[in-house]
Amino acid sequence: MRVWQAVNPVNGLTYGYGGLKLIRRAALREMGQAVDVLAALPGRVEFCRRTAGVTRFNQSPFHAWKAGFRECAMLARGSEYGMTDASAQERIAAWTASRDGEFAAYAAAGARDGLGFAKAAARDTQRFEALNDPPWLNQHFTTLYGERAVTG
């Protein structure tokens, strides 16, 4: 898989999150129903330094929260792609300080919630897998922020 960078509209970071991904069809078929493409695909990942565009994950409070939650939980747990701890901490700091663009406050709240989740679930692989469970994420968000926040 090859990944081109994307600009994050709520925190200004430019890296692989939300970037354009080029994947072999056979590898994509092997992936199954996984939510995290990078973690699920076999083989190595090549990160390109060119920017492909702007990721638009912040279409609702829930989507912005989910992005911050999942990304910061994974960053806090540790990267499998050779990222340094300092780089991970810089990204976490940017996510938790998100203030630009629509629903930035929800992205920042999700980032903080994701850090708490990672601390509580880091050693429990089965519990940590909730990051890849869309119904669980939706329910967790609704529990924290209420039904009305799901749709904006």
> What is the CA-CA span between the terminal residues?
34 Å
Q: Provide the gyration radius in Å.
A: 15 Å
Average pLDDT score: 87
The gross shape turns out to be globular
Largest sheet composition: 3 strands, mixed
Strand-helix topology:
Layout (H helix, E strand, L loop, with lengths): L1 E6 L6 E9 L2 H7 L5 H4 L5 E9 L6 H17 L7 H12 L7 H18 L3 H4 L5 H12 L1 H5 L1
Parallel strand pairs: 1-3
Antiparallel strand pairs: 1-2
Question: Can you describe what's shown?
Answer:
This protein is an alpha+beta fold and about 150 residues long. Helices cover about 50% and strands about 15% of the residues. The chain is built from eight helices and three strands. The chain has helices at about 25-30, 35-40, 60-75, 85-95, 105-120, 125-130, 135-145, 145-150; strands at about 1-5, 15-20, 45-55. The chain has a three-stranded mixed sheet, with no helix packed on it. A hairpin with a 6-residue loop joins strand 1 and strand 2. The longest helix has 18 residues, at about 105-120. It is globular, with a radius of gyration of 15 Å. The N and C termini lie far apart (about 35 Å). About 30% of the residues are buried.
